[in-house]
Amino acid sequence: MPELNALTPELVAQMTKPSAKQQLLDWKVNKAKVQKLGVKEMRELLCVMLEKGHKAMVNMRLAGKRKRDDPEVVAEREAKMAASEIEQHRRKLGNAVRVQIEMGNYVIAARCGMVSSCPYHIFESLIVPNANKIVPSNYTRTSPVILCQIKGTPSIGNIFGVSKIRGGNRYSTYDAVEMDLTYQPETQEVRAWWKMSGF
């Protein structure tokens, strides 16, 4: 049986730090000292470590909850969720446009219209900032119909995705260059018509 050594204050202080990672590190560093402890001393040390470790876990959980409730953290989390929601609707609207763009050998099919839907807040955050003209200019959520005129491939691409408004093959490539879009807030319906141009 190993020789019994009394626990030194330094050893106890090192072995009972609140950080679980630090406890493991200290355990490895003091492995030689720990191996010399008797059963009684080892039991006491483990009890102290478990108690301190449990308190450390509680403190970590409380700190995590305080961090989650912090206004800056909440605002950042909401911004990420909003960006994710916008991207989902961009993909949905873009797919509705892309399915209508069909390319033949030298010409593109004359299917340049689509119908989809999106919530009002997505309309305001995704479509309105990229529109060149909006009628009526003082629209509200209760307006029967809102017309948006969008000019230029970059602006249209910002709404639907650049790859979704393009069609082509080895002979020629076409992009949407102009678009008229209507939105009905009551039904959340989006209707769009566009003109393709290419070479």
Q: Would you count the extended β strands for me?
A: 6
Give the overall form. elongated
Q: Cα-atom Rg, whole angstroms?
A: 32 Å
- Main beta sheet: strand number and arrangement? 6 strands, antiparallel
Structural class: alpha+beta
Number of helices: 7
Oligomer: single chain
Unreliable runs, pLDDT <50, ≥5 residues? Answer: none
The percent range for strand residues is 15-25%
Mean pLDDT: 75
Which series of helices and strands comes N to C? HHHHHEHEEHEEE
- The portion of residues assigned to helices is 40-55%
| End-to-end Cα distance | 90 Å
Comma- or semicolon-separated keywords:
199 residues; alpha+beta; six-stranded antiparallel beta sheet; 7 helices; 20% strand; elongated
Please describe what this structure looks like.
- The structure is a single chain.
- By secondary structure, the chain is α+β, with helices and mostly antiparallel strands.
- Helices cover 48% and strands 20% of the residues.
- The protein has helices at residues 9-15, 20-29, 31-35, 39-68, 71-98, 120-127, 153-160; strands spanning 113-117, 133-135, 146-151, 166-168, 173-184, 189-198.
- Strands 1, 2, 3, 4, 5 and 6 form a 6-stranded antiparallel beta sheet that branches.
- Strand 5 and strand 6 form a beta hairpin.
- The radius of gyration is 32 Å and the shape is elongated.
- The model has no long low-confidence stretch (mean pLDDT 75).
